[in-house]
Write a structure and sequence with these properties.
With about 260 residues, the chain is of the alpha+beta class. The protein is built from five helices and 13 strands. It folds into two domains: about 130 residues, Nuclear Transport Factor 2, Chain: A, CATH 3.10.450; about 120 residues, Immunoglobulin-like (Sandwich), CATH 2.60.40.1930. A hairpin with a 5-residue loop joins strand 6 and strand 7.
């Protein structure tokens, strides 16, 4: 009987040890998420970027990480967040995080994490699919769709190069962007404009600006904006202008020489 009791006690201790180890490992795995939200709360985007895995940082620059935050305000400064659930294996894990800005509707994100050199790092952040809405509500809040992006200048000539890209000559300091939508904009809408320098097919650096579009009484579907040149000026090369509106992204490339 004594052997049976000792064996049962050993089994209980083993189970408790496994549970405690699992809880400790889960806490360690989700720690970079907590550190990242703390850094963003303090406006320290660089420290938040360092919470991402080396693979992520090799694939996406610091500026592109900032663009990700611009596209997802619920990940930025002034948010409240909580980890809803998490699971992990030996060297990878997943956490579901609910985050919101002030009184806005919370947004759910899925964080993928990996164990790198004994330390957990965030390998990806993906917004979860929004909950299905009633058709009439979805129609009321649905954003217009971007159907066209055109980049022009006041004094330039355009031809087509050997690579099929438009070639811009006589570049002046500013450029103009024409946006076309599939229907009129009915609510105040923020649009992010990115101007990127492309080398070898990669976006090496870019500048970012934000504009606000107000509803127009004439219910027009085409808008013209003026944007400044990149800080380094218009050097010879390939450029890409991208328009980001919510989850939509449209871009156009052109060459200067």
């Amino acid at each position: 009987m004594a052997y049976l009791f000792i064996g049962f006690l050993a089994l209980i201790c083993t189970v408790l040890a496994i549970v405690c180890y699992g809880n400790r490992t889960t806490g360690q795995m989700t720690e970079p998420i907590r550190r990242q939200f703390a850094a963003l709360g303090n406006g320290d985007t660089r420290r938040a970027y360092e919470c991402m895995s080396p693979q992520f940082r090799r694939a996406r620059s610091f500026e592109e990480f900032g663009a990700l935050l611009d596209e997802n305000p619920a990940l930025g400064k002034g948010t409240t967040a909580r980890i809803e659930s998490s699971s992990h294996s030996r060297d990878s894990g997943t956490a579901v995080v609910e985050s919101a800005v002030s009184s806005q509707t919370p947004r759910t994100y899925t964080y993928e994490l990996i164990l790198d050199g004994g330390e957990w790092k965030i390998s990806s952040i993906k917004p979860s699919a929004p909950a299905e809405k009633k058709p009439q509500l979805q129609k009321a809040i649905e954003q217009p769709r971007i159907t066209g992006v055109t980049v022009t200048r006041g004094s330039m000539k355009i031809s087509v190069g050997d690579d099929g890209l438009p070639v811009v000559r006589l570049a002046d300091p500013r450029y103009f962007i024409t946006l076309t939508f599939d229907r009129p904009i009915e609510a105040t809408t923020d649009v992010v404009i990115e101007t990127a320098v492309c080398l070898g097919g990669l976006r090496t650096s870019f500048t970012r600006s934000r504009i606000t579009i107000e509803p127009d009484p004439a219910r027009k579907t085409e808008y013209l904006f003026t944007n400044d040149r990149p800080p380094q000026g218009w050097d010879v090369g390939v450029y890409e202008v991208s328009i980001v509106m919510g989850e939509q992204r449209r871009g156009v490339k052109f060459r200067i020489y």
